[in-house]
Amino acid sequence: MTEEQHDIRLRVNGIQHTARVPARRLLSDCLRHDLGLTGTHVGCEHGVCGACTVLLDGQPVRSCLVLAVSAAQHDDITTVEGLAAPDGTPHPVQQAFGECHALQCGFCTPGFLTLIAAYVRDHPDPGEDDAREAVTGNLCRCTGYQNIVNAVLRTAEITREQDGAASDTTAAAPRAEGGRP
């Protein structure tokens, strides 16, 4: 007997996708096998390690705990492949991970990147203890976490610099004659 299949629509990294999946297909498996987005890694399949973390409507979730048919009810899914800007400019967290040498084998990295991107968005000026607490739910067997914590802090710094530069550009916009914008 074959399992009933469901046609679903998922908006992933700004692109609309369709897939035909069994009711019990996990979002992590759908992303990897049905959509070919292999950046989301699957470690424990129990929601413990965090390697499969993606953003569901902007919030970090363990994609190994979400059914693909349930994810179809949400507006947007962001995977590690969707963090960079459309022109390929790395997201601040991607830049920070490189600068801070925050990865070794790289298996856990996609989950950390998506988690930290959301964390810094919501907490733009974390302290070291805050950064350490933010990443405690994701497991890394290689780094010892210090460089990951440094990357959280550097991500926040880069983001503040970019936000400041954007504000300066807006403030420096040319004014029409008479001093009015």
TrEMBL record:
Stretches the record annotates as Disordered: 161-181
Gene3D superfamilies documented for this protein: 3.10.20.30, [2Fe-2S]-binding domain
Chain intervals with Low complexity compositional bias: 165-181
Highest taxon in the source lineage: Bacteria
Protein name stated in the entry: (2Fe-2S)-binding protein
PROSITE patterns recorded: 2FE2S_FER_1, 2FE2S_FER_2
UniProt keywords, alphabetically: 2Fe-2S, Iron, Iron-sulfur, Metal-binding, Oxidoreductase
Domain 2Fe-2S ferredoxin-type positions: 6-83
UniProt cross-references to InterPro entries, sorted A to Z: 2Fe-2S-bd (IPR002888), 2Fe-2S-bd_dom_sf (IPR036884), 2Fe-2S_ferredoxin-like_sf (IPR036010), 2Fe-2S_ferredoxin-type (IPR001041), 2Fe2S_fd_BS (IPR006058), Beta-grasp_dom_sf (IPR012675), Diverse_Oxidoreductases (IPR051452)
